[in-house]
Design goal:
The protein is of the alpha+beta class. 13% of the residues lie in helices and 30% in strands. The chain binds zinc ion. Zinc ion (ZN) binds next to loops. This is DUF1989 domain-containing protein. InterPro entries: DUF1989, UAAP2.
Amino acid sequence: MTTAIDFAAAPATDLALVPGTVVLDEVIGERGPWSGVVAAGDVLTIVDLYGNQAVDTLFYGAGDHAKRYSAQATIAAQGNIFLTTGTVIRDQEGDPLMTIVADEVGNHDTVGGACSQESNTLRYGHHTRHQHACVENFLIEGSRHGLGKADLVGNVNFFMNVPVDPDGSLGIVDGLSAPGKRLALRAEVDTLVLISNCPQINNPCNGFDPTAVRVIVTRPGV
Ligand SMILES: [Zn+2]
């Protein structure tokens, strides 16, 4: 029998992928939303505390919410649909918002989109209509920043495994992540990060059991 490491209790300085002064350390509860501004130069480490937890994420210019994440610009610039170390998270003008500077998983999705009450009903049946979903998390948390439905664009799904078959079809399959797996994003400009810790229970994106994740922001060189 192995003893599991308690990543929720580990010191933030041990978990941050880029060392520095810890300026933020919060747990995002299972199924819950989160938002925060990561200042230019600071590094956001996201920890998949219990493994296989999709972290739906959107990015906006902190000073100008009209600057927002663009999956198209991000994919086109790097010539690859998967996000990993070296990926520059770009806005619709192609300007950098953040850069993935470390990644313990290998690839992250940005074509699968966010779950919603409507898409759940379509995919999984009307009995799922009442279930909480990522779009609702984005709307609840985004409203704190004056963001509404028109501001939601195609998002990143960190820790979500969406392979593309040779014929171009997508699948949402068992994750590549595991307890304690992390990735780190360095802000290139002051960036508002909006997260839905995905509540989905109808497909394997959360191992059918949504769990908490942890966000740590470090300021290197201080
Ligand atoms: Zn979701």
